[in-house]
Write a structure and sequence with these properties.
about 450 residues, alpha+beta, 6-stranded mixed β-sheet, 5-stranded antiparallel β-sheet, 16 helices, 22 strands, elongated
Length: about 450
């Protein structure tokens, strides 16, 4: 029997550009009505668009009927000559080992399986059989647990490598389609139990809401679509703002304080979320309370820090710095700088050379250079980071010495940067703090014949 393609399904494919010519699509098929409907719609679509799809089925080993579902999916694929990949993995054991709920464990295992197959066979997309009822359940679950407008927008037709071609089709439409054509599907009896939160919402909450308004599922879905449209605009604004005020360097994110502090509260919250997402990889377990806590840094003193489990945020003179706790800077090893040397230390490239007075007169106005009378300098020069008790005689202070710590504070050098700056020493005397100050020691005189030039450049 030739399967007629569903009009909504076809409109979704075209309008959202879910599947194109020559695409390679993985179909997640459990054997339930939704996934079987998706299977037949993909078959029908192959009559209109030339694309390839294979089926993935994960046996969770959770129910005694699990092998019946597996065999059903295998026979369905064999009947229509569709490649089928099956894997066995206990979601109960995985939930126990990883301290997850069975629902979460099953979801994690499924998506890992799908993406492993996608990578192995170089496929493009993963088709999931979420429908309109699933969307309503997701919205209500998130609303009950606490969420913002991002969470309330729930699932979308396209999310990176995931596509949901039947998201706007109701469960009763799906089952009517299959039953009217005598197409078999499997019933998951665990869906009838209210032990799981989603099932409780499906069986009790939505039934109660439909008694108030039979179109509640349609209305919830309409809300998610409106939110997706609004979020599209909001995300453009937040991303534009984030990239305008942020700098990413050495696995850290720096938000310009002056620009950040004048933002509206809502935009501040979203910029913080983007910073966490970029530094942490996800926003899991990041709540509004966490965001509000980070924003307290605005009222705290320079150098104050807020620590979370995976990342930290510190308030510097000019920025708010976000960094991963497992990527904290290691101590920089001391090294030596010789004549006509060229090396990298911390985040700087440093070169030495010897020049004469004529060359000095041409170069002395240039930036990124320090000059010294070489007569009393002993090679090799030591390069290290600062240590307790370090003192320097900065040029312009009449030969008086100053604690390096105090000098860096006066120059408003961020606390996190102070321990990374290269300090160059000769005979235990500090010649220079790259890139800030040179010492008054060994300054150039009229009678100086040979001059040590130290050039430095920050490595981007």
């Amino acid at each position: 029997m030739k399967i007629k393609i569903n009009n909504k399904f076809l409109e979704n494919i075209k309008y959202h550009q879910l599947i194109n010519e020559k695409d390679k699509v993985i179909a997640a098929i459990s054997g339930g009505s939704d996934s079987v409907f998706l299977f037949y719609q993909l078959l029908a679509l192959k009559e209109k668009i030339k694309f390839d799809f294979l089926v993935c089925h994960l046996n969770h080993l959770h129910r005694k009927e699990a092998y019946e579902d597996e065999n059903f999916v295998k026979s369905l694929c064999d009947k229509y000559n569709i490649k089928c990949i099956i894997k066995h993995k206990s979601m109960d054991q995985f939930a126990k080992d990883n301290k997850l709920s069975p629902e979460d464990a099953g979801r994690v295992l499924r998506y890992k399986f799908f993406r492993d197959v996608k990578a192995k066979y170089s496929y493009d997309k993963i088709a999931i059989a979420h429908n309109m009822n699933d969307q309503a359940e997701t919205v209500l679950m998130r609303l009950i647990r606490g969420t913002g407008i991002d969470g309330l927008s729930a699932m979308d037709f396209k999310d990176r490598d995931l596509i949901r071609p039947i998201l706007n089709i109701k469960k009763n439409e799906i089952e009517s389609f299959l039953i009217s054509r005598g197409l078999e599907f499997k019933l998951d009896k665990t869906n009838l139990s209210t032990d799981y939160t989603r099932n409780k919402i499906r069986i009790e909450t939505i039934k109660m809401l439909e008694s108030i308004n039979p179109k509640c599922i349609d209305n919830i879905f309409r809300l998610t679509q409106l939110l997706h449209e609004d979020l599209s605009l909001i995300k453009k604004i937040e991303e534009s703002t984030f990239y305008d005020i942020s700098k990413i360097k050495d696995n850290k994110i720096y938000l310009d304080r002056k620009k950040f502090d004048v933002l509206d509260t809502a935009l501040k919250n979203r910029v913080i979320r983007l910073a966490i997402l970029n530094i942490n990889g996800d926003l899991k377990n990041v709540s509004k309370l966490n965001i509000d806590f980070i924003r307290q840094l605005e009222k705290l003193k320079i150098g104050k820090k807020i620590n979370f489990k995976k990342f930290s945020v510190i308030k510097n003179y000019n920025n708010y710095e976000f960094y991963r706790n497992d990527k904290c800077d290691k101590k920089i090893e001391n090294t030596y700088l010789r004549n006509y040397d060229d090396l990298n230390f911390s985040s700087f490239n440093i070169k030495t050379s010897i020049i004469n007075q004529d060359e000095f007169m041409q170069l002395k106005e240039k930036n990124n250079r320090f000059f010294f009378d070489i007569e009393k300098i002993t090679f090799p020069l030591l390069i290290r980071t600062r240590e307790n008790g370090d003192r320097i005689k900065p040029i312009g202070m009449g030969g008086n010495s100053k604690k390096v710590k105090d000098l860096l504070i006066d120059l408003k050098v961020d606390k996190n940067i102070r321990n990374k700056l290269p300090i160059i020493l000769s005979n235990n005397h500090i010649l220079a703090i790259i890139p800030l100050k040179r010492s008054n020691l060994y300054k150039i005189r009229k009678e100086t014949k040979e001059i040590l030039m130290i050039e430095y450049k920050e490595i981007k």
